[in-house]
Structure formats: structure tokens, C-alpha cells
Amino acid sequence: MPLVEAMASHTPIVATRGGAFPEIVEDGRSGLLVERGDAQALAGAILQLLSNPRQRIALAQAGYERASMFTLDRTVEDLLKEYGCLFARDQKSGCGRLSISHAYAPAVVTSSETSSGRALYEPEFHGPDWSG
Q1: CA 77 to CA 102: how far, in whole Å?
Q2: Which of 12, 53, 74, 105 has an alpha carbon 20 to 30 Å from 43's alpha carbon atom?
Q3: How remote is the C-alpha of 59 from its chain's centroid?
Q4: Is residue 66 a contact partner of residue 26, using CB atoms and an 8 Å limit?
Q5: Which residues pair with 98 in a beta bridge?
Q6: For residues 48 and 78, what is the distance between their CA atoms, to the nearest angstrom?
């Protein structure tokens, strides 16, 4: 997912309000969102960031921090919780809270590291063996 990769590399984000982007980017906090097909708004958002270094730095830092929500470990943890809910049919334990963007998160492939020094993408799977 190139958007999360950009966030993980401290790149300020300008994206459209479409697909999973609004779930990933918090408008005005971890990036700027504009309407699809609105070239004027897109140009305006880019110019806004080019002319405002403080905002650019703040959005880049917030985006970097938000990118940690989309690690493979977190995605696996969330998916296993959802599977557990399906098997248990237990709707009282927080089931059904998996967002669309988490479902896409396994596509994130980056060598960037978080502040803890752990890679955002780790190819090893440490979950239970579901093969039967």
C-alpha cells in the first residue's frame, strides 16, 4: 500500500477521498484529503504544503505515527480476533470492528522502521496453524 509506505517514510500526504484513503489518512492531522476529480483542490492542497513548512512537518510526523497502525503484526492480531468472533459467534466482545483499511494492510511492504526499531513489514507469520 504505497500510501502507508509514504507515511512510514515521513512524507506529507495529499490524497483523495476515495477507497480506503479516508480510513488511513486523518484529514488535517496525518495528511490532507481532497475530493476525487477536483484538480483545483488537489493543486491547492499541494501548494498549501509547499508554502507551509510547519504544517508539512506536522503532517509528516503524524502520518509516520499513524502508519504504525498498519503493521503486519497488528493486522494479523485484528484478523485473528475477528475470526475468533466468527467461530464463537460472540458479538459482545468487540466483534465487527475491523476496518476496511486493515484488510488491505498485508499488502504493505516496506523496510522502514518504527521508533522501536521493528520493521513495519515482517514476512514471518506467527499466528496459529489454520491448515487443519
Answers
A1: 10
A2: 105
A3: 14
A4: yes
A5: none
A6: 36
Q: Say which amino acid occupies 15.
A: A
DSSP 52-90: -HHHHHHHHHHHHHHHGGG-HHHHHHHHHHHHHHHHHT-
Query: How is the chain split into domains, by residue range?
Result: 2-68
Crossing angle (nearest 10°) for helices 39-51 and 53-67: 100
Residue 31 near residue 25 (C-beta atoms within 8 A): yes
pTM: 0.61
Is residue 10 within 8 A of residue 63, CB to CB? The reply is: yes
Q: C-alpha grid cell for residue 97?
A: 470492528
State pLDDT tens for residues 47-93: 999 999 999 999 999 999 999 988 888 888 888 888 888 877 655 55
**Grid-cell match 521493528, residue found:** 118
